[in-house]
Amino acid sequence: MDAGWNCCDGEVISGGPIPSLDPSPGTAATPLAAEHPASGAAPGPQPAPPSVPPATSATSLAPLGDPAQVLQEVFGYGAFRGPQAEIVAHVVEGGSALVLMPTGGGKSLCYQIPALCRTGVGVVVSPLIALMQDQVEGLRQAGVRAAALNSSLEPSEAAGIWRALEQGELDLLYVSPERLLSPGFLDRLSQLPLALFAIDEAHCVSQWGHDFRPEYLQLAVLAERFSAIPRLALTATADPRTREEIRERLQLQQHRVFLASFDRPNIRYLLRDKDDARSQLLAFLAERRGEAGIVYARSRSRVDRFAADLRAAGFDAVAYHAGLSAEVRSSALNRFRRESGVVVVATIAFGMGIDKPDVRFVAHVDLPKSLEAYYQETGRAGRDGLPAVAWMVHGAGDVPQLRRFIDDSEAGQAQKQVEHGKLDALIAFSEASDCRRQVLLRHFGEALAEPCGNCDLCLEPDTSTDMTEAARKALSAVYRSGQRFGAAHLVDVLLGGDTARIRELGHSSLSVYGIGKELDRNQWRSLIRQLVAKGYLLSDAESRGGLRFGSDSLVKPLLKGEASLALRLPPAAKERRQAPRGERGAAAPTLELAEEGRERFEVLRSWRLEQARSQGVPPYVVFHDRTLIEIASRQPTTLAELGTVTGVGQAKLERYGEAVLQVLDGG
């Protein structure tokens, strides 16, 4: 597996020289290498000695504006979504918190608005590369004074940013954890009025998370040195265990937790049995020409091969992985950000961190490493809330290689066991027999009462079969062996295997020994994973993945013959099910806009592209597609009417309003 530029390899990107008042963006910079020392050791000083002056007290700060007014006038939104209003009010009043909100759910507003409503500068800590660049560019378009410090700056440029900070001319400053913890950085920050600290991608602090980054562990120093300044930890991917570790590591145990729904209802989940991944991908993309998307593959060679196949089929596709030169990666990244209809083919660890709202599909031609990684990767689709598709082909051949990656890693045994458990959860999701979204949300501790109606298992005919008797055998094997063994040993028992462990434990004498020969090993493992996914069995991480009974309300009726269970199992090893060569699933969801309105939308998109190219920024920092769709639909004729469109704040209205009205008028 290629590490690529995953979400935790990044370094802050500068948006160019910082103007004191002019919100217009500078020339976009290109992505750079990470701010890691050559030795690989995590930089950062020890906590400062007592002689360092304390940070400004949060209790002495007075709000500078009404959050709802800032939301409307700066960002152009008429109302907060979900828990945003409560989070913003909490932070404006000086509170700290852990915020869990899905990608595209509006996490950034939860710290951007408080930073504008409080005295001082808001400091945002994030490992993401291009996301920081997008955030700085987007904020400047909205009239917000934002900047980022990184190693690409000339000394005079860095000095200029520090002067702006010291003179109170910045609202938001983006830094990587390495830069924040570099010698002297915190000392200089302690001399400034600080509005807040925002720690983005906070799951990187957790060793149980899917993107652990050692540098994040040192961010506990913020609680020690700046205890009076609000601290906001934000993430979109954290299961209950990871959440608790984030709170402990960042010393947020006594502070509030805001948990929004993890559901992304605009994303359609479509999974297919892998047959010929190339042909299947081309069939899936056949009706998606001109759409921006991401294709994930597990290795550099597969990335190069799929990118070439897509180009040969007429798609505007670029490859992106760590084996390419920095110049090639930079070019691919910038094309994807700034042009329409570009498809990036990347390694499955690739974490672009781009705030690109109009990604219409994310496709996996190989399994990712965990369900958390899958959720994060697919979450890059449809950030604008418009319909998007998460498509994946998967097969039993994907699993052995992923297990080898785990076993061959340098992680400790406990961590390897956790990673195997995460992989099992992903496989259970891919083999689910009922609503995919229900299984996905259940993994994050959230229950969806009804099937979603927007995944392949909800939209397509049910092919599950009655597996009640086989499930009872599996549960009996768990019980008879003491509810402490993992799936591999239980399958050996059910198949009547002659292993050293079976002989040592005397499990050949169990009544369930050899009673499961109607299924092969792969089918039994699939069945057991689905029992875990449905709650019949629980995988105990503390006992190295040993399985025990789940809810009595599920297990007892099944064992007593009072309930039945239908599941989808993979084909037997001796059979080869012929998978469809084409994409026979439900059609991709479409953007709702009448033909006349779509013509206006395309004209507005062309105008937006010209504006973006003239400024050297991605089109979506000028206006999101959602905003253009609303403009095309409503056809405002005055600046006042245009100002009521979602995403049109005061700065953008002043900057683009007359031009937009001229475009609509045919000028």
Structural topology:
Blueprint (H helix, E strand, L loop, with lengths): L66 H7 L10 H9 L4 E4 L8 H9 L3 E5 L4 H12 L4 E3 L6 H12 L5 E4 L1 H4 L4 H5 L4 E6 L21 H5 L5 E5 L4 H10 L6 E4 L7 E7 L3 H9 L6 E6 L2 H13 L4 E4 L5 H13 L4 E5 L11 E6 L6 H8 L9 E7 L3 H10 L5 H18 L5 H8 L12 H4 L5 E2 L1 H13 L6 H8 L5 H6 L15 H13 L3 E4 L5 E4 L2 H8 L6 E2 L27 H21 L9 H10 L4 H4 L7 H15 L3
Parallel strand pairs: 1-6, 1-7, 2-4, 2-5, 3-4, 5-6, 8-13, 9-11, 9-12, 10-11, 12-13
Antiparallel strand pairs: 14-17, 15-16
Radius of gyration from CA coordinates = 26 Å
The named CATH superfamily of the largest domain: P-loop containing nucleotide triphosphate hydrolases
Counting structural domains, the number is 4
The helix-and-strand class reads alpha/beta
- Give the CATH topology of the largest domain: Rossmann fold
Quickly count the helices.
Answer: 26
Percent of residues in beta strands? 5-15%
Q: What separation lies between the terminal Cα atoms? A: 52 Å
Q: Taking strands numbered 1, 2, ... along the chain, how are they ordered across the largest sheet?
A: 3-4-2-5-6-1-7
Compute the average pLDDT: 82
CATH class of the largest domain: Alpha Beta
Shape: globular
Helical amount: 25-40%
| Count of individual beta strands | 17
